[in-house]
Design brief:
By secondary structure, the protein is of the alpha+beta class. It is built from nine helices and 18 strands. It has two domains: 237 residues, 4-Layer Sandwich (Purple Acid Phosphatase, chain A, domain 2); 55 residues, no CATH class. The strands form five sheets. Strands 1, 4, 5, 16, 17 and 18 form a six-stranded mixed beta sheet that branches. A four-stranded mixed beta sheet has the order 6-7-14-15, with no helix packed on it. Strands 8-11-12 form a three-stranded antiparallel beta sheet. Helix 2 links the parallel strand 4 and strand 5. Helix 3 crosses helix 5 and helix 7 packs across helix 8. The longest helix has 13 residues. It is globular and about 60 Å long. The two termini are 31 Å apart. It binds manganese (II) ion. The site of manganese (II) ion has 7 residues, from helix 3.
C-alpha cells in the first residue's frame, strides 16, 4: 500500500512529522521506513524552503532503500536545465534574475558543497516523469495520455534522455510544449479583451485550467486556477480542451497547484496533494489502501511550521 505525499519544497521538518504521523520510523541508517507501506513523492522537493538538503537526503534515502518512489516536479526539471549547458555553452535555463531568484534557496543550501548538488542533479535527472501503476497514476501537474505516449515513444520509457532534455529547452519545440503541460499544467490563451489578475495582481492573458473538468457549460471562474476569474460562460472555442474524465478507470495523483484550505478531491478520479507548505499552508498525504474510489477521509496533514 502507498502513501502519496505532495510538494515539500525544502520543508524537511514537516516531512518528518508527516512520515511519523503515517507510521514511518527512521531505522538504523536513519532512513524512514514502514513495515507494510511505501511512499510516493509527487515532486518539487527543492527551492523555497529552509531544509532543502535534508529533504533530498530523506527522499533519496527512502527511494534508494526501496521504501519510496517519486516523480519529477517542475522545480527539479528547472534545476536540471539551470545547471546543464547546451552546445553553445549557455545554460539550458537562462540565468536571469527571475530564474536565479526562483532557485536561490537551493543554490544557497549547497553553496559550500557544489559537488553534492551535482550529485543530486544527476539523481533528479533519472526521476520518472510519471508513474503508471496497476491501480492508479502519478504525475506532477497533468496526466495527458496522448502527450505521455509521445514522450514514451521518444525516450523509450518514462525518464528524460539527454536528447529529449536538450530539445525540451527550446521554446516552441515539441518536447518543450509537452513538458510544459505534464510538469506545469495546461494554460489557455484567453479571448481578446478577457484578462484577469493573478495572486500578485499582475494582469494575465493566459489562464491555467482545471483539466479534470469538462469545460462545457462552465464559467471562467469554474474552470480557471490561481486567480479571480469572471463569472461569464466559457466560449465555445474552449470546449474541445482535453480533460481527464471523472469516471476514468484509474485515479490520478498530482501536486503542483499551491492549493489552500481543507484538502478535497478535484474530481472523483483526480487528487491534488499540494497544499502550499512553503507558503504557510500544509504538507498533505493521501493514505491509499487499495480503493478504486478515492475517499476524502484518507488525507493526512501537517501544518507548516512557519
Ligand atoms: Mn510544481
Amino acid at each position: 500500500m502507498y502513501d502519496l505525499i505532495g510538494d515539500i519544497h525544502g520543508h524537511a521538518g514537516e516531512l518528518k512529522a508527516l512520515l511519523t504521523q503515517l507510521g514511518y520510523q527512521p531505522g538504523h541508517s536513519g532512513v524512514y521506513a514502514h513495515p507494510e507501506r511505501r511512499v510516493i513523492f509527487l515532486g518539487d522537493f527543492i527551492d523555497r524552503g529552509p531544509q532543502i538538503r535534508e529533504t533530498l537526503q530523506i527522499a533519496r534515502g527512502m527511494i534508494d532503500a526501496g521504501h519510496a518512489l517519486a516523480v519529477m516536479g517542475n522545480h527539479e526539471y528547472n534545476a536540471i536545465c539551470f545547471h546543464t549547458k547546451g552546445p553553445d555553452g549557455k545554460p539550458l535555463r537562462p540565468h536571469t534574475d527571475k530564474n536565479i531568484q526562483q532557485h536561490s534557496a537551493t543554490l544557497d543550501a549547497f553553496r559550500d558543497d557544489p559537488e553534492e548538488l551535482d550529485e543530486y542533479l544527476q539523481w533528479m535527472k533519472q526521476l520518472p516523469l510519471w508513474l503508471e501503476l496497476d491501480e492508479f497514476r502519478v504525475i506532477h501537474a497533468c496526466w495527458h495520455p496522448e502527450l505521455i505516449d509521445r514522450v514514451r515513444d521518444q525516450v523509450r520509457g518514462n525518464r528524460l534522455t539527454e536528447t529529449f532534455l536538450h530539445e525540451s529547452a527550446q521554446k516552441g519545440a515539441e518536447a518543450y510544449e509537452i513538458l510544459e503541460i505534464l510538469l506545469k499544467g495546461i494554460e489557455k490563451q484567453l479571448p481578446l479583451g478577457e484578462i484577469f489578475r493573478d495572486k500578485d495582481n499582475h494582469v494575465r492573458t493566459e489562464m491555467r485550467i482545471q483539466w479534470w473538468k469538462s469545460p462545457r457549460g462552465l464559467t471562467y471562474a469554474d474552470y480557471g486556477l490561481g486567480g479571480r476569474f469572471s463569472s461569464k460562460p466559457l466560449p465555445a472555442s474552449f470546449f474541445d480542451t482535453y480533460h481527464y474524465p471523472p469516471e476514468a478507470e484509474k485515479p490520478v495523483f498530482i501536486g503542483h497547484y499551491w492549493l489552500r484550505g481543507e484538502p478535497a478531491l478535484q474530481s472523483p478520479s483526480v487528487c491534488c496533494l499540494d497544499y502550499s507548505v512553503a507558503k504557510g499552508g500544509e504538507l498533505v498525504a493521501y493514505r491509499w489502501n487499495g480503493e478504486q474510489e478515492l475517499r476524502e477521509g484518507n488525507f493526512v496533514r501537517v501544518k507548516s511550521f512557519q
